[in-house]
Amino acid sequence: MSQESILSPLTEKLDNGVFRTVLPSGTVVLSEHMESIRSITIGFWFRQGRVHEAETELGASHLLEHMVFKGTARRSPRELAWAIERLGGTLDAYTTHEATAYHARIPAEELNVALDVLTDLTFYPLLRESDLRLEREVVLEEIAATEDVPAEVAFEKHARFLYDGHPYGEPIIGTRESVTALSAENLSAVHRKVYQPGNLVVAAAGNIEHVALVDSLQALLPEGETPVSEKPVEVPTGSIGVRRVEQGGGRQIHIVTGGLSTSYKDPLRYALLVTSTALGEGMSSRLFQRIREELGLSYTVYSFHGFFSEIGHVGAYVATRPESAAAAHNALFSELATIAVDGITIEELEDTRTQLKGQILISLESPGARMNRLAGVALYDQPYRTLDEVASRIDMVSLDQCKEAACYFDPTRLATLELAPE
């Protein structure tokens, strides 16, 4: 009997081997079967990140992500990790501005172990004050580690400058002051409100059968209330201008410049990807060829982009010695001004289309990449698109669209942060 013949009425087939089920609790389950893979990568996403935090909860999403690994009624911290690692698998987690994720990779036949561990640690953590006193120190060390890397400091300060106080520009990890102020009750309150089946997205890829995934998940998930709807995230207006910060340590000036752009849902996102890639993503890009290869002004130079549900940003980064800073700055902004006015060439468009399609195909050889792609469909409330449909959208990007996208790199609309040694 084929898998499709026993699918629940709540299940939709999205593509060959790709299925989506919405459980009565509201949990969204997506999976993709990969025949040649002998493992499964599976993740739980809760719609809880920096943008959902109240002023009294700054850094709570990330600290809660740490704290759930400190033990449950059934497992100690070591037992949570060892349940997966003894199988040769891995267990990890991360927090973004808009979600918190927990994921595991295990041999295909051990799916139930992974599901049991993921549901145990996310729904039944102890969240004890005694554990928090220790884990808070770990997060403070994490903050200190970031402060020791000038490039990360530059990007953090630039995000705050660009987003002008909006949560999208604030550090996910929180600050020393906010993390120190958080209590176990603060974390428990967030957990009770948000870690509910109705706020959960489950995505998996590998040698997996969707029916088995759904059946096992339903047996393990607790009953829960539908989380209270959060108020819509306000769209930031952003800042422009130049800000210089001096900081002890380091021997380079780090220049980060960027501006607000389109959201993840905006169709112009594909043209932005093409334009940003041609500008500064890779050794063949304009920025790399001009600033590193032709002028020798920097070892590290690139463009970047990021997309949220309500907004996005694009920009560029260069690190250079103080004596080369003026020349590097001028070269960087010359390239940004040129692409903002002229867009990219037809040759760049054709080459970058091929480059992006190849990158997507190569990345999707990984079950983890396919898992994350599926999760994005649910988290951003987007239609699922086959690889052919994605490739078609890239092929449909026109020069006019790229010229429209390139306007986001206009230096007059950017916020620039220069981090220099004292």
Could you say which structural class the secondary elements and strand pairing correspond to? alpha+beta
| Order of helix and strand elements from N to C terminus | EEEEHHEEHHHHHEHEEHHEEHHHHHE
Strand order of the largest sheet: 1-2-3-7-4-6-5
- Measure the end-to-end span: 70 Å
Largest sheet: 7 strands, mixed
Helix content: 40-55%
- Figure out the total of helices: 15
Strand portion = 15-25%
Question: Any low-confidence stretches, pLDDT <50, length ≥5?
Answer: none
Please count the beta strands (DSSP E, at least 2 residues each): 12
**Overall geometry:** globular
- Tell me, rounded to a whole number, the average pLDDT: 95
Radius of gyration over all CA atoms, rounded: 23 Å
Structure commentary:
It contains 15 helices and twelve strands. The chain is α+β, with helices and mostly antiparallel strands. The strands form two sheets. It has a seven-stranded mixed β-sheet with strand order 1-2-3-7-4-6-5, with helices on both faces. The longest helix is centred in the first third of the chain and has 19 residues. The termini are far apart.
Topology:
Blueprint: E1 11-15, E2 18-22, E3 28-33, E4 39-46, H1 60-67, H2 77-85, E5 90-95, E6 100-107, H3 111-123, H4 129-147, H5 150-163, H6 176-181, H7 184-194, E7 200-206, H8 210-220, E8 241-247, E9 253-261, H9 269-280, H10 286-294, E10 300-307, E11 312-320, H11 325-342, H12 346-363, H13 367-379, H14 387-395, H15 399-406, E12 415-421
Quick synopsis:
The protein is of the alpha+beta class. The chain has helices at 60-67, 77-85, 111-123, 129-147, 150-163, 176-181, 184-194, 210-220, 269-280, 286-294, 325-342, 346-363, 367-379, 387-395, 399-406; strands spanning 11-15, 18-22, 28-33, 39-46, 90-95, 100-107, 200-206, 241-247, 253-261, 300-307, 312-320, 415-421. It starts with 10 loop residues before the first strand and ends with a strand.
